Amino acid sequence: MKMMKPVNEFIIQKENIFSGALSCRGCGWTLLARYVSHVMGENTVYVVPACCFSIIAGPNPMNLMKGTVVHTLFAAAAATATGVRHALDRQGKTDTLVVVLAGDGGTFDIGLQALSGAAARQENIIYICNNNAAYMNTGVQSSTGTPSGAKTTTDPSGKKLPAKNLMGIVDAHHIPYYATASPAYLNDLVSKLEKAKDASGFRFLMIDGPCPPGHKHDPEVSIELTRLAVETRYYPLIESQDGDLIISYLPKENRPVSDYLKPQGRFAHLFGDTDTNGIREIQKQVDDSWQRLLKMQEITSSSVRK
């Protein structure tokens, strides 16, 4: 298997976003928008439901993105994108891309029905979820993307259940391309964005989204934390093309998940207890998930990367 370099060698030559984003310091959304807009280009319609990015993107005509931004309802991102896609096709603008930029609340929860419908119909859109694992824009409430153990305003003692396996749900729709990516691995992120752009039908990407206010970490360590999420196997980097699942990065060390959890205030209570069952349970969840991915790769991959 080809090992991806954890060095960010990719350099943007021309910016397709404007300066002055309204994001918090250390937010993953603006970095994601920068690279999405670079790959997709100006001939793109971005559909944005209620989420942090609906604020960060700014109101028309003061958009962050050099493209068209359509703001829509929390539950309607995939449905709105479908309508935009069909309207553009009727006008002969088949080269214009339609890209959803949504959070985990509007993807895992409120927008899941519309997402499922669009995926089942193979609508020709790209859906990108910035997963910061809670409803950050409205006060850090738990979503079904919130991992077990994490403190939120609606789970003040720590969420009891693990996050929904959204990638498993997406996989069940038999779409041509889906992937996970991280802002700490820009070469991999850009490569997956380009593959999604070049494919047709419904494409889905989930990006790990650092959030200093919600995750309770220092803004300057946002990228390092997303790197630790990958290196500890807490957030695996995967992709699937036409049903063949590949783990696109294999960590070289067997680092414990506590390396990722400890710098975040949302998990601080797990380290303050004398009983470490919470950390052991999260480690078990991570290990079990990793083994399932290895098995899926073995079963579904028709060839091994050289």
Within CATH, the superfamily carries the name: Thiamin diphosphate (ThDP)-binding fold, Pyr/PP domains
**Count of structural domains:** 1
CATH-defined topology: Rossmann fold
Q: What would you call the structural class?
A: alpha/beta
- Discrete helix count: 12
Unreliably modeled segments: 1-7
Q: How much helical structure, as a percent, in the residues?
A: 25-40%
Order of strands across the main sheet: 2-1-3-4-6-5-7-8
What is the fold's blueprint, element by element?
Blueprint: H1 28-40, E1 44-48, H2 52-56, E2 68-71, H3 77-90, E3 97-103, H4 105-109, H5 112-120, E4 126-131, H6 166-171, E5 177-181, H7 186-198, E6 203-208, H8 212-215, H9 222-231, E7 238-241, E8 244-247, H10 258-261, H11 268-272, H12 277-300
Parallel strand pairs: 1-2, 1-3, 3-4, 4-6, 5-6
Antiparallel strand pairs: 5-7, 7-8
Question: What does this 3D model show about the protein?
Answer:
By secondary structure, this protein is α/β, with parallel strands linked by helices. It has one domain (28-300): 3-Layer(aba) Sandwich (Rossmann fold). Helix content is 37%, strand content 13%. The protein has twelve helices and eight strands. The N and C termini lie close together (5 Å).
